[in-house]
Sequence to fold (166 residues):
Amino acid sequence: MKRSYELAMIVATDLDKGIGKDNDMPWHISADLKRFKELTSGHPIVMGRKTWESLPKKPLPNRENIVLTRNLNFSAEGATVINSVGDLEKLNLKGEVFIIGGAEVYNLFYAEISKLYLTYVMERFDCDTYLEFLKLKDWETIHESEVLTDEKSGTTFKFIDLKRKN
Ligand SMILES: NC(=O)c1ccc[n+]([C@@H]2O[C@H](COP(=O)([O-])OP(=O)(O)OC[C@H]3O[C@@H](n4cnc5c(N)ncnc54)[C@H](OP(=O)(O)O)[C@@H]3O)[C@@H](O)[C@H]2O)c1
Fold:
């Protein structure tokens, strides 16, 4: 049966596919946070329990926040808690549903994801969480920005939109 929704992944990685450190982001790029908000607002967002806990303010507003945990007693105020990938299909979601991390949850859904919104951080950061499974050969670029620089930190990055190759 065809699904009523499509899965998109939104992630920022460094040159080594690092995405996190000490359950936090390794960098602060304000344009990336702005783009994240613009793309995901109005859409359901799916995250692992650790990413939920890392959010400074939760739930993220104007989005249905969905948190994945194996803990059957977990409660997340303002969010929908699910305990398996199969539970997502029971939520009657529509349109573009964003997988927003972290590494475990990206990996879990990776094969089902048809669109990838990548912030490619063009430096190496001290990270403890990586996306080894992310293979750029699986993806075709739809749009790529010029190289941008975060004014405050000097970090350089690009925004790249990709779709899965058929
Ligand atoms: N750079 C980026 O764009 C970006 C985006 C998001 C997050 N991050 C970073 O990524 C790091 C967190 O990633 P992470 O991989 O450690 O954690 P995560 O994916 O956010 O959460 C992992 C948790 O999800 C739950 N889970 C995983 N698989 C499950 C399954 N099959 N069924 C039910 N629940 C399941 C488990 O929760 P329970 O333990 O409660 O059972 C597990 O501990 C942080 O550093 C964060 O800042 C970076």
